[in-house]
């Protein structure tokens, strides 16, 4: 059965996203009153509350442009009267590249080297043979990180609810995270922020890591207890941290995470906005095609799980 899709794209307009709707078999309409779907393109220029006025009774499906949906769930925008999908698979490869770059930077002590003003720096260590534990390892970002790390000869441990089919990496459920941390050299966090994952990496988790282990976060800042992280860095009970996301965000200029030789911070740019639209358009086209042919959409949001 073929469904008719009339999508309103906005509030920002991008030709690639519009072309994706058409290529998928849908129509782009200029007025929300004639739409039965919304392809939301807002980024940081909008908030979830800005969508309320567009959610008419005729809207059957909303495609968000973000991978994380915690802000949308917290704002109680996402409802059960229509289908909601995120772009969580769109940016996985970009974010995974940042995570692997962080792992390499940590292994080779690049944060300390970048701050040097004279010859000489702490020696790094080879990555081959190390253990990388990925929290959120069964998601799109986590599996992409694991695949990118394979050529480096590391042992990968995925932490998640259900292992992917034919998974070739070691996998443990969240209840066994602390057991896995004892042999972890690099802890990579790429899980969504939910009520279960908020503050998950706190004092107990950090104390479970070896003293030279690095914590890498490309997921959501609030998954790490920031106070506990600063405490571990001060005490020298972890090797360091590489963070693309923080809590709070942005960090105040005087925050104690800044200025450390063993901390590298980037301002939430693992998914660069300048390269945002191409992968988003691919997901939009895929979902429009599925919508018009009556198939299940990718990236469906489950409010009970929080992602």
From TrEMBL:
<dbReference type="GO" id="GO:0016618">
    <property type="term" value="F:hydroxypyruvate reductase [NAD(P)H] activity"/>
</dbReference>
<keyword id="KW-0560">Oxidoreductase</keyword>
<dbReference type="InterPro" id="IPR036291">
    <property type="entry name" value="NAD(P)-bd_dom_sf"/>
</dbReference>
<dbReference type="GO" id="GO:0051287">
    <property type="term" value="F:NAD binding"/>
</dbReference>
<dbReference type="InterPro" id="IPR006140">
    <property type="entry name" value="D-isomer_DH_NAD-bd"/>
</dbReference>
<dbReference type="GO" id="GO:0005829">
    <property type="term" value="C:cytosol"/>
</dbReference>
<dbReference type="GO" id="GO:0030267">
    <property type="term" value="F:glyoxylate reductase (NADPH) activity"/>
</dbReference>
<dbReference type="Pfam" id="PF02826">
    <property type="entry name" value="2-Hacid_dh_C"/>
</dbReference>
<keyword id="KW-0520">NAD</keyword>
<feature type="domain" description="D-isomer specific 2-hydroxyacid dehydrogenase NAD-binding">
    <location>
        <begin position="101"/>
        <end position="270"/>
    </location>
</feature>
<protein>
    <recommendedName>
        <fullName>D-isomer specific 2-hydroxyacid dehydrogenase NAD-binding domain-containing protein</fullName>
    </recommendedName>
</protein>
<dbReference type="InterPro" id="IPR029753">
    <property type="entry name" value="D-isomer_DH_CS"/>
</dbReference>
<dbReference type="InterPro" id="IPR050223">
    <property type="entry name" value="D-isomer_2-hydroxyacid_DH"/>
</dbReference>
<keyword id="KW-0614">Plasmid</keyword>
């Amino acid at each position: 059965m073929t469904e008719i899709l009339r999508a309103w794209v906005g509030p920002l307009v991008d030709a690639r996203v519009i072309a994706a709707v058409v290529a998928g078999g849908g129509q782009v309409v200029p007025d929300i009153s004639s739409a039965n779907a919304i392809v939301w393109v807002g980024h940081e220029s909008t908030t979830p509350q800005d969508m309320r006025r567009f959610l008419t009774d005729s809207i059957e499906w909303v495609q968000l442009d973000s991978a994380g949906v915690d802000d949308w769930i917290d704002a109680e925008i996402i409802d059960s009267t229509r289908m909601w999908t995120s772009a969580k698979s769109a940016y996985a490869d970009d974010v995974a590249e940042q995570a692997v770059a962080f792992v390499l930077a940590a292994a080779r002590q690049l944060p300390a080297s970048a701050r040097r003003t004279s010859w000489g720096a702490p020696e790094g260590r080879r990555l081959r043979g190390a253990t990388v534990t990925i929290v959120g390892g069964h998601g799109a970002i986590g599996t992409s990180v694991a695949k990118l790390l394979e050529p480096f000869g590391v042992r990968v441990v995925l932490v998640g609810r259900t292992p992917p089919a034919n998974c070739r990496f070691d996998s443990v459920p969240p209840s066994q995270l602390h057991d896995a941390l004892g042999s972890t050299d690099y802890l990579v966090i790429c899980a969504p922020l939910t009520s279960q994952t908020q503050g998950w990496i706190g004092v107990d988790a950090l104390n479970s890591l070896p003293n030279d282990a690095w914590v890498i976060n490309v997921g959501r800042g609030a998954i790490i207890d920031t106070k506990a992280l600063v405490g571990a860095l001060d005490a020298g009970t972890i090797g360091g941290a590489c963070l693309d996301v923080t809590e709070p965000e942005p960090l105040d200029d005087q925050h104690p995470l800044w200025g450390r030789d063993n901390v590298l911070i980037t301002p939430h740019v693992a998914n660069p906005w300048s390269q945002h639209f191409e992968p988003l358009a691919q997901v939009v086209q895929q979902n429009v095609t599925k919508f018009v042919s009556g198939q299940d959409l990718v990236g469906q949001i489950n409010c009970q799980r929080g992602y």
